[in-house]
Amino acid sequence: MTAGQPGIVIIGVGNEYRSDDGAGIAVARRLRAIFPKGVTILEESGEGAALMQAWQGATCVMLVDAVRSGASPGTIHRLDARAAPMPAGFFHYSTHAFSVAEAVELARSLDQLPPHLIVYGIEGANFAAGIELSPAVEQAVEVMVERLAQKIQAAVDNFT
Question: How many domains does the chain have?
């Protein structure tokens, strides 16, 4: 974070070459086009240490990743990491060796969670090799971009 920045970090997690696993990356890229300055928007593979480094010093973190929980493809899940432990099974199908849930729980045990950490999971349908998102996930990405753009703008307005 640079001096004067509000400490808002958006993290898109995933692998854009594994179809729906690229949902978090797609959200980050679209938000970066809307907020080219003033908000830190990162793309991460989901490696735990890198995630913990990415949110270090942030006040408000919103993380988006693909999940597979058995819900309908395109379902958007919202988890407040400060309120309760992350359900490890949500991110089990993820291509990340050290899952988002494990990174959050390690940070919790080390007392290194940011003051506000919201994790959004977009229910995926297809995690095979490929660069296209399935239609339901593409639609959910658009919903997430719109929803997060509003939240980001409100957070920026609160800091200014």
Answer: 1
